[in-house]
Specification:
Strands 17, 19, 20, 22, 27, 28, 29 and 33 form an eight-stranded antiparallel sheet that branches. Strands 1-4-13-6-7-8-9 form a seven-stranded antiparallel sheet, with no helix packed on it. A seven-stranded antiparallel sheet has the order 2-3-16-5-10-11-12. By secondary structure, the protein is mainly β.
């Protein structure tokens, strides 16, 4: 079944077998089972995502897992000659013998679920992703489609069949981002902590959470804030939110001062924010701009920026559009990421201190104001601020976003068809 009406035909397969992460799968017997989606494809960009469990059968064959056509198009296959023994291959072909292949550089494991994504972009570059990480890429020519439909489990040219199970095959007419690919992998594999632990403070990295439901209390612990002027409004994600007037409102959290962050090598800040203002802070710790921890809507463009002392700064496009945005900043000591509404919008390799080790000023964490420049008060509404002393995974960020949107947007935009 397809969420977009492009329903396929099962030829001998066994449906409804146990899949990965609660998904149902389809079993292929390796001799004559296949699925025909009855849908041809001729787009200039694409992403093919699928879960694979090879049972070890037909180990001397080049079994196609999924793909289009006999002489053109794209295909994902298990190749007996690749990577010593039955490696995974993503191939783009022109009509005839011209083709380009990339591999995972490892044999496909037996009786173990793996996630593969093959992409092709308008610059004629192909990439193969394996269990949420990019395995290889290469430049190629344009795809020359031959008009055949997308099929799974059958290599038509030589009549060879896949032996094992496949689940959740998805075809997109665009190139998925690395963050989206990681999210699909983690959504299927159910990696990371459960929703309950993310929300109830039992997560091992939980530091503080401010729901701003009538107070600046830390609902996870003892890091309570002091509210100076912010009002609590019903225009919120859940419960109430904190409304800051841009003149003199702020929440001060004395127990989370600069000395708390000094020496730490990982961090996540999650917050819902809505504003039409710019050059304002969502969360700020420390005074000097060169020793700061800042999550702000900066400059006249209202771009979200996440700055950590010597680590660096990430910046998004403008988010001060007057709508609610779920903004998450993470750092794990080697990678710095910024998310908007469940998706990675900026990331970079980075190392360094979260804040300056000199804690002589030791100023507190603030919501709705940054100390530098002076009187940097924000005209902003903020809800459900969370601080973790570890880097949340992309899947966990999606979970927090789904919680805020009641799961609607993630399901419609990525996991389902929209």
């Amino acid at each position: 079944m397809s969420g977009n009406g492009n329903h396929g035909t099962h030829n001998g397969t066994t449906r409804g077998v146990a899949g990965i992460g609660g998904l149902q799968a389809t079993s292929f017997n390796g001799s004559d089972d296949s699925v025909d989606t009855n849908t041809s494809f001729n787009k200039t960009e694409l992403s093919l995502s699928i879960w694979i469990k090879w049972d070890g059968g037909n180990d001397s064959d080049n079994s196609r897992i999924a793909g289009t056509g006999r002489d053109g198009g794209f295909m994902l296959l298990k190749d007996q000659f690749i990577d010593s023994d039955n490696g995974l291959v993503w191939s783009v072909r022109n009509k005839g013998s011209s083709y380009t292949e990339v591999t995972t550089n490892k044999s496909l494991p037996q009786n173990k679920w793996v996630h593969a994504v093959g992409t092709f972009d308008e610059t004629n570059k192909i990439e193969l992703w394996y269990n949420g990480s990019k395995a290889s890429s290469a430049a190629t020519g344009s795809i020359d489609y031959d008009g055949n439909t997308l099929k799974a489990g059958i290599e038509e040219l030589n009549g060879e069949f896949f032996s094992g199970s496949l689940a959740s095959m998805r075809l997109y007419d665009r190139v998925l981002t690395g963050g989206e690919i990681r999210s699909l992998y983690e959504w299927g594999s159910r990696t990371g902590v459960t929703d309950a632990r993310l929300h109830n403070g039992r997560d091992p990295g939980a530091v503080a959470r401010y729901t701003l439901d009538g107070s600046a209390e830390d609902v996870w612990g003892a890091n309570n804030g002091t509210n100076n002027g912010a009002t609590f409004v019903n225009d919120s994600i859940r419960g109430q939110a904190g409304s800051f007037d841009g003149s003199n409102d702020e929440v001060i959290i004395d127990s989370l001062s600069q000395s708390f962050y000094a020496g730490r090598s990982s961090l996540s800040i999650s917050a819902w924010a809505k504003s039409s203002d710019s050059d304002i802070a969502i969360l700020n710790a420390t005074e000097r701009n060169d020793s700061c921890l800042n999550l702000v809507l900066e400059d006249d463009n209202g771009r979200t920026a996440f700055k950590l002392k010597s680590v660096g700064k990430l910046t998004t496009t403008a988010l001060n559009d007057g709508n609610w945005h779920h903004i998450v900043a993470t750092y794990d000591g080697s990678v710095q990421r910024l998310f908007d509404n469940g998706q990675i919008v900026a990331e970079q390799s980075a190392t360094g201190e979260i804040v300056d080790q000199d804690t002589s000023t030791d100023l507190p964490t603030r919501l709705g104001r940054r100390k530098f420049p002076p009187d940097g008060y924000a005209d902003i509404t903020i809800d459900d601020v969370r601080i973790y002393d570890r880097a949340l995974s992309p899947s966990e960020v999606h979970q927090l976003y789904q919680w805020g949107t009641r799961g609607i947007d993630m399901r419609r935009k990525l996991v389902n068809k929209r």
